[in-house]
């Protein structure tokens, strides 16, 4: 049947209609379709049924087969009034089929509070050419309910409070014009619920407080021009949820407090327009949520307070557009923003996550990770390959940055070192100099580990020789002064070196291979032990009084100590000035 028509003309003639399956009708309805220019684009023949005859069949409990018929002014409410039935009392229909039918009503085609028996209901390929379509409060038995390929020209359809038995609810390839599409408070049975490839145009699309059982919810390649898409308070059981390549237009998309159950949720390649995207308070027992390669527009994106402790959620290569993105106090097992462009403020103060992956991202604004009024428990933070053009608001101690990087399982030592470098430069830019020192130390340590690993992989003499510079760096740069970040540790190391060389001089004297001698006698009556430490002090600090001088092996040790003294004093000066100037 033609679907892309602007207007139509209907003419009923007293000519017998014979359907393909042999059913007959005393009259024939001829529907001619016209495009926007008023030109004819097709025509269809239907059996023109007497609506009172249909009501009598319902009353007699017969199957209602309206395939290829023209049905004017169908109203269960009217049937209820004519037969003295209470307003909300269910009207039973034994079996119902209206495939490729043509419905027309001045007000609405009314199926409210109808009870359809088991065996399925089909409106496949039908046209509701004029008037609203109402199924509020209806009950469908077991079997498939088919609205695939159906056209709703008025755009206002209502299924509020309907109940479906086990079976598939198919709304595939349907076209619904501008209006309110109300699927609130529905209870679906087990089976597939499919709106795949449906065109909803503009208006409100409401699934508020709807219950989906086990099976599959398919919204794949559905197109919405704009308005409002509202799923909040809906509950999904153990079912696969598909929103892949769905186009939401500039709608306000609302998934607040939705319980996604324990299935797999797919928003891959979905396109969100410039309206608000809101998943605040949504929950999921276990599973995966995918937003890979999705596109979002100018509106705010709210993913706050999500309860998904055992769920992996991925936004890999998603385009977030403009507008802030917030995950404030949400809980995930893992969350990935890998390879995204983070051009606006991102609030990633997660209440809990085993892994936050922001690797290969380009950050042009602010990423906020710093705890404020609750602890941010991110066990592993992957920043490998990040291009940080903006700022990270993060705290070394409260965010446990050290463990967050070390705990990474899929990154190399070189990548870990690079991430500590990113943190070091970021802390410098945000004025957190104590945190900068901590990050710098870890950067140099992992840089050294990475270099040693690379040299060892070469094997041979290179492997053996690499331990010498690595050991020197470990002792002198790391252990003695924490890479010039701790003047206190350097000063403590000075004391250790002074004491160490004093002991050496004393032991050399005992061994008889060298000694320290006084050139002015021994007016203070110093013992050999104390004279050894005095000589160590004036040599280490390059004082050079000349009242005590070395002999034998002590001359070699004195030269070495003099060099160490100059080096350590310079080291202390660098570390001290670095602290003061900041």
Ranges where pLDDT stays below 50 over 5 or more residues in a row are none
Distance between the termini: 78 Å
Helix proportion of residues, in percent?
25-40%
Overall pLDDT metric = 92
Number of separate strands: 46
Radius of gyration, rounded?
A: 40 Å
The total of helices stands at 10
Largest sheet features: 19 strands, mixed
Number of domains: 3
- Global outline: rod-shaped
Estimated structural class:
alpha/beta
Strand content: 25-35%
What is the element layout, followed by pairings?
Blueprint (H helix, E strand, L loop, with lengths): L6 E7 L3 E2 L5 E2 L2 E7 L5 E9 L2 H9 L4 E2 L3 E4 L3 H7 L8 E3 L2 E2 L4 E9 L3 E3 L4 E2 L4 E8 L4 E2 L4 E2 L4 E2 L4 E2 L4 E2 L4 E2 L4 E2 L2 E4 L8 E4 L4 E8 L4 E2 L2 E4 L4 E8 L4 E2 L2 E4 L9 E3 L9 E3 L10 E2 L8 E4 L10 E2 L4 E8 L10 E2 L4 E6 L4 E2 L3 E2 L4 E6 L4 E2 L2 E3 L8 E6 L4 E2 L2 E3 L7 H6 L6 H17 L3 H26 L1 H6 L1 H14 L6 H25 L2 E5 L9 H13 L7 E5 H29 L1
Parallel strand pairs: 5-7, 6-9, 7-10, 8-11, 9-12, 10-13, 11-14, 12-15, 13-16, 13-17, 14-18, 15-19, 16-20, 17-21, 19-22, 21-23, 22-25, 23-26, 24-27, 25-28, 26-29, 28-30, 29-31, 30-32, 31-33, 32-34, 33-35, 34-36, 35-38, 36-39, 37-40, 38-41, 39-42, 40-43, 41-44
Antiparallel strand pairs: 1-4, 2-3, 4-5, 45-46
Helix pairs in contact: 4-5, 5-7, 8-9, 8-10
Features:
582 residues, alpha/beta, Helix Hairpins, 19-stranded mixed β-sheet, 14-stranded parallel β-sheet, 10 helices, 26% helix, rod-shaped
